[in-house]
Amino acid sequence: MWTFTVKNKIKAAMLFFSVLCLVMLTNIQEQHLVKRINESVTSLYSDRLVVADYIHQLSNRMEKLLVLLSAPQYSSKDVNLELDKIKQITTLYEKTVLTDKENVNFNTFKIYIQQIAQNVNATDHAKAIEISKQARQTLETLSSIQLEEGKVKLDEVISMTSRSRLMSYIEIVILIVIAILIQILVFSAKVEMGAKVPKDHNLN
Fold it and tell me: Model pTM?
């Protein structure tokens, strides 16, 4: 009986140790997932939503620039002032994290702005208007990229939360199985101990 009890104690201890390891591993994995989710959500805000606002501001500025360039009463001072505002927003945009595709189009937009300024200084308004329209088209491309990248980041967050939920379900199932095994060990030990209790047949 003593040997059987020791074996059950060892098995129970191993099961309890398994529970401890499972909880620790799950906790570490959960922390890792939470960190990645936070990074993705931060990136979604900082590098996508904020940038989308920059693109919106730049688009409005480009529309105003086209109006100024096309005005009968042309004012180079007003045009250069508008170009300075566009450059300020572009500087903020440049500080965000850019994808390869986004970086190519963003650099193209900056080149267009430089060319517009050069043509304005050379009083070539027609050329400046033509390049402004190309710059506006580039902004539309950048806007499309933001939608694509935003969806990618959102899908990443959804995938990670789904994985975290699945891991929680698996952990619960494993814990239930271990709890059942421990109950079986305890019950079998009681049955074995009860079966080996000697009976005194000389009692009246």
Answer: 0.63
